[in-house]
Prior knowledge:
The chain has about 260 residues and is α/β, with parallel strands linked by helices.
Amino acid sequence: NAKRKPLIAGNWKLHNNHFEAIALVQKMAFSLNGADFDAAEVVVLPPFTSLRSVQTLVDGDKLKIGYGAQDISQHEKGAYTGEVSGPMLAKLGCSYVLAGHSERREHHNEDDAVVNAKVKAAFANDITPLLCLGEGLEVRKAGDQVAHTVAQLDGALKGVTEEQARRLVIAYEPVWAIGTGEVATPDDAQEVCAALRVRLGELYSPEASRETRILYGGSVKSDNIAGIMAKSDVDGALVGGASLKADEFVKLVRFRE
Ligand code: PEP
């Protein structure tokens, strides 16, 4: 998978006010000094309220750290109190936005149709959706993880064009592994990531299948990332808890060293 540059993305969830965000990104940047940014792309996903501060820091210090948002409104503008739109995120220089994270699906009732609308809203604003897919424990126990996750992919990509699909990033995140300390085995991750890649080929083209980065997420830490990244269809990690400490997150970015 030499063509697919590994991506390590930190989902901060509901952590860090904008002062804390600045301190964390500065610390990360300091520790990443001299790192090989050709070896891995680094992205942080702070809460909305920290995006402007992170933008100022990244632009001002020309940091090789990308950033994005954790959510996007499916609407461009209008009477949608509390929402943040794609154009607003684009203006803040966001390169990425999460769509379909299991916490949004669970706590905010986001179904495949909503996720699909958010994926399209991201593409419409030249923001790369980081599309999160994955099965819960019951589905895993029944052995239906591939069918479930592939169906989520189909739902999220309705009406998405070939050109768009080739800019997509997918994160396979088994829900039972998120924030639980229970990481999927490298083989578990590979099984579903490979199936998602095959499906991209069926929905789009061999190029889309070959070029799309598929990350694993779920209790990734510095002591388990290497085994997961060694799998041929895993192109990076979406990291929650371990992205909140600069030292640990930097170790993840430097997983090859
Ligand atoms: C996540 O929030 O996407 C995630 C994978 O969390 P954690 O790394 O804490 O399991």
